[in-house]
Predict the structure.
Amino acid sequence: MKQSATFSRLLLITTIVIFSQTASALPKPFGKAVNPGDYDYVETKFRGENQEAARLNVVKSLERAKMDDRRMRVYVPPTIDSSGVDLAEIVSRNLTKVAFESGVDIIDSELPVTLRKKLTSYEKTQQPIAADAEKADFIITSRLVSANASKEFDSDSERLEAGLKGKSGCEVKANLTLDLKLYSLNPLELDEAFFIDHEFENFYEGVKSCDTVTTDLTFKEAIASALDRKAAELKNAFAPKGLIVDHRVKKNKHIFKTSFSARKGAAANTDVAVYKFVKTHDPITLKTREEKVLLGTGKILNATDPDNVWIQLDKKANASEVRLGDIVEVQHENCSNFSFNPGKNCFVKEKVLADKF
C-alpha cells in the first residue's frame, strides 16, 4: 500500500510538472481582459488644421460602420484552369481556405449573371462600374495559367556525387503559375492582383523507378505551397480597416479605440498597423498628393467593450503621434515559417494543405 501511495504521489507530481511546463510553453493569445473604463481620457486633436471638418468625417465613418457592422463577404467563384491538367478544384479549395481564415464570409459559387457581365465589361474597359453590393463586398478570381511537372530518377551514385544523403529515388518537380485578382464592389474595380510563379519538388526515396510515381500529390502540395506564401497578402486585402476614434491612458499605457468591432473578423492579439496620410508637393508636376505613412504597430486587446476593437501600440511606437481619425488596419502575419500557434494570427501549416481541407 505504501509503495502504491508513493507511486501515486510521484505520478501526480510528475503530471503537474509536465502540465506546468506545457502550459508555460503555450502562447497566451488573449491575456487579461482590459476594461477601457479604467483608463483616463486623453484629449487628442484631429489631424489637419480644420478640426471641425475632420470631426464630421470621423462621425460619418462611425455611422457607416454602425450600419454595416458585419464580416466582409467575398465571392470565390470556381477557378479557371488554362493548364490542361485539371487542377481547378484543388486551387479553389485552397484559395477558399485562405480567404476563410482571414475572417470573412465566403460565397463559394458562380457569380450572378449580371455581375459576371459587369466584371467582363470592367476587364475590357478598366473603368469602375456601379455594381450591386448587397450580397458581397469583394470578388476574388483565380486562374491556373500553367502547370508542368517532370520526373527524374536519382541513382545512389548520382546522389553521392551531388553530396546528397539517402537512398536512390524519384525526384518530381512541379512548376505552376497562378493569376489571382481581387475586385471590390460598389463600384466594381480591381483592388489588387497577385501573379504567382511557383516551383515545388518532392523526392520519393527507395523506389526502383519513376514509373510507379505519379505527379498528383506534388501538384497538390505545389498549389498549397504557392498560396501559403501569398496567404498574408491575400488575408490583408480583406482585413478589417477603420479609424482611431478614442485615446485613453493609465500608468503610461496608451490604448486606442477603433471604428470597427470584433464582428468584422478582428480577433484579440492580432497585429495592427496605424497610419497617417501626409500631403506632399511634387516640384516637377506641381501636383499635391497624399502619402500613407506608418505611425506604429501594435496588437488588438482583449477588451471588455463588445462594440469596438481596442488596440495598444508597441513600446517602440510614439503614442503621442497618433491622432483621431488616423487609419488602423489589421495586419495578418506571414506565417510560412510558423507551425500552428494560437498566439499568432497564423493558420495551420500542414505538409499537404490540399488534402486537409
Remarks:
- The chain has seven helices and 13 strands.
